[in-house]
Amino acid sequence: MKDTLRITEIFFSLQGETRTAGLPTVFVRLTGCPLRCQYCDTAYAFSGGEVLSLDDILEQVASYRPRYVCVTGGEPLAQPNCIALLERLCDAGYEVSLETSGALDVSAVDTRVSKVVDLKTPGSAEVARNRYENIQYLQPRDQVKFVICSREDYDWSVSKLIQYGLADRVDEVLFSPSHQEVSGRQLAEWVIADNLPVRMQLQLHKILWNDEPGH
Question: What pTM was estimated for this model as a whole?
Fold first, then answer.
């Protein structure tokens, strides 16, 4: 429907990862995702949700008086009206980020948005879905994330970091351990040993709230 989106939840919490980790943020979680990553922690957003107008979404976001807004999913770009939502959030004066799998075209995303593009590693079971054409649309304000499930994933991620010159293309390259597959300590030791130009991150929301929905 015109000017509507299917929404799983809108909530106010601390950003758990990325460049703004720890900052109070409103999350707008869109319903639906064409991918099935084996480590997905938001499968509850694959279906269901509530159809809301863009005006209703903006009104709910404004009620929290946020500085930061994160549009996430699922895969938010699977709904075409996500593009219009991002533009309206930017027009409202928020610092806006978009969490996307990188499997869908990001070329139409408002340039004011910080795109957090997740390059899928082999261990995700969705590496074939990576849309490498998206790399040409990355700007310094954007971020690239790798969720690492094994040493093989780490080596693959380093190869992509080098191949695409990601550290020079975006402000932040994020390496995150896949929960219960690679320990934070192990990933930290690999990053230190190779002196990588990346930010190793843990998911703050898992540490604080054990990944409960609404956080």
Answer: 0.93
